[in-house]
């Protein structure tokens, strides 16, 4: 073991006795789940299922979402394999509780201290551990490797700060990275960084990609297509504070098409009806009046985004117009050839939006510029469709990389 890794293990071991107090304080601040603090120390009320077990780790919401296609493929192609998913934030835990398929277990990731890491690995005995976009946690990696666990690092990236830190400890970085049986970088920049640290990078794959186009109910599509005299504007997945921004932008359009406004949480439908009427717009709830014409249709139904992206002339990908949400998935619109506009607050989807911007496949705008961006698409629909084609081509290529990456991961399962 290199000197710097030995010092790290010694320091984290000395600090481990105060971890319970630190976790308790974080729980009082709302940053930890007080009922599950034991999991952060490598302890669990769950028993390990029999048979092969694959452990998947994504630190927070974006990484956790990107794990889901891999979980689904594992459950479909290798049903005898149990799946353990860990994350580090309460928000990601809530999301995973709703989205993980039957048979998958969620746990909070243990703190990176020798005792917690050792207890976690001894309890779960993973045959394969897959870290997504993860920073390198030495104790967890070294304990897993010592126990004979195969290791994969996928959608791998290093922040500027992490790259600078590991560059000062090249021997430690080389030792940790050599533990991995498979490394797939998130993009070319990450590929170069990992190779500069001595890693053997097998290719590139971003697991935020790789999903199939959203499905649609064809009879419902026919009903809704008859509702609209021209392709509607779609305002997709809004949160409180964004409806007002979008409706103000829509109300200011001189050549206004019909609008579909789909709130992220459908129970907010009546609130949005009131906001639209306050701006002089006629409004209908999709749940109550399928096919009824109005200036604004509030899509207060679940599982129909594939329908709306197919109908829309342009879509605003909300969750991005106000801070502290982090943006929503822009790839769903691209896969269905729908021109997309987004706000600037997209920290949960930074790499996807960066790639789309490089491909000239998305318009990014401030709330103040949203009306002008919508007006531009309405004035030049052909240019908007060309933007959608560029986005589709970019996403198709990245989806193929991601699906190939998933296959390579599954090949590591015993």
UniProtKB/TrEMBL annotation:
It is an enzyme of class 2 (transferase). Its main location: membrane. One of its GO terms (molecular function) is Kdo transferase activity. The keyword Zinc does not apply. PANTHER family: 3-DEOXY-D-MANNO-OCTULOSONIC ACID TRANSFERASE, MITOCHONDRIAL-RELATED (PTHR42755:SF1), 3-DEOXY-MANNO-OCTULOSONATE CYTIDYLYLTRANSFERASE (PTHR42755). It comes from Caulobacter segnis (strain ATCC 21756 / DSM 7131 / JCM 7823 / NBRC 15250 / LMG 17158 / TK0059) (Mycoplana segnis). This is 3-deoxy-D-manno-octulosonic acid transferase. The keyword Transferase applies. The lineage of its organism: Bacteria, Pseudomonadati, Pseudomonadota, Alphaproteobacteria, Caulobacterales. It catalyses: lipid IVA (E. coli) + CMP-3-deoxy-beta-D-manno-octulosonate = alpha-Kdo-(2->6)-lipid IVA (E. coli) + CMP + H(+). The active site is at 63 (proton acceptor).
